[in-house]
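not sure who needs this but someone in the group chat was asking about Acetyl-CoA acetyltransferase from Sphingomonas panacis so here u go. i didnt clean anything up, its just raw.
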Amino acid sequence: MAEAYIVEAVRTPGGKRNGQFAGWHPADMAAEVLNGLIDRTGIDPAVVEDVILGCVTQAGEQAFAFARNAVLASKLPQSVPAVTIDRQCGSSQQAVQFAAQAVMSGTQDVVIAAGAESMTRVPMFTNLSFHAKEGVGVGPLSDRIKARYGVEEFSQFGGAEMIARKYGFDRDTLDRFALESHRRAAAATAAGAFANEIIPLNVDGTPRTADEGIRFDATLEGIGSVKLLQEGGVISAANASQICDGASGALIVSERALKQYGLTPIARIVNMTVTAGDPVIMLEEPIPATRKALARAGMTIEDIDLYEVNEAFAPVPLAWLQAIGGDPAKLNVNGGAIALGHPLGASGTKLMATLIHALKVRGKRYGLQTMCEGGGIANVTILEAL
């Protein structure tokens, strides 16, 4: 079978809501990642055959062919096409998988997979505003769906609470996990662990290179003092992912392109899996998706050196660890979305950049990445660092 290789994977730092990147138009932010991939690889931008860009809230500045606008804002020639995709939080991870499928099929040789989300300038649920303001229709869920599942809406917050109850996690356990996320992210930042994956963004003429959401002075007491999102629940804003502005991307190529353009790969894609399950509990799907991916790859969890499991809410990676039998020391070694932020459509390639660079620094071989997604979907990608 033909192979798909990653030549470079990069991300911007994370910006807090109304924080350091609030002045950046999301198309320009995405364009900086596209430019960074071209600059770091030295490839002729004219040979890029497509840009597949993930974005969840496709409204306002992220509407109207958002991926194409990112290309037009970049140094890529206008001859490069682009498409915006939405697989919820796994959008840019799916972009990688679509790009790899194009390369492995022989349809294309050089594809950029990316993602971008300005949660400051295009807040969550902005794309529902037409229904809310105009009173048109009944929203995304038809009466048929509501009747089938006995709900008025699907809630990720509700799903996180369900997982916590199912797996027996109390608030203290979740808060301790959140604290560890901040501690790992702070240690990684201090050690310069993110330096090779970050594309700086200029703010008032100054390059910003640091993730803004990390609490370097985080304490268990401080995290525990944050108000719960639901009375009697265990989820708070402090043990859930942070709203974040950011962009990320990866250059995916064929073996033929490696030779033709003199490129050096940093990773090989071993397996790509996507599954779907219960849309009500929703966030549990990374567990069966991981089992399927490992089985298809002929691997066990013991073969995997590092894993990135998106910290949408603390119960998600904790449940994954418990069910899969993973080693906590291999999970999100540089911190996760609780500390670093979760820029929705950009998180897939963001985590991938972190995973690949973490593997290479440690001299490790295999990495697994998985992401819970709206509607009860999950992507899993297994990589080999080269």
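also The first helix runs from residue 26 to 41. if thats useful
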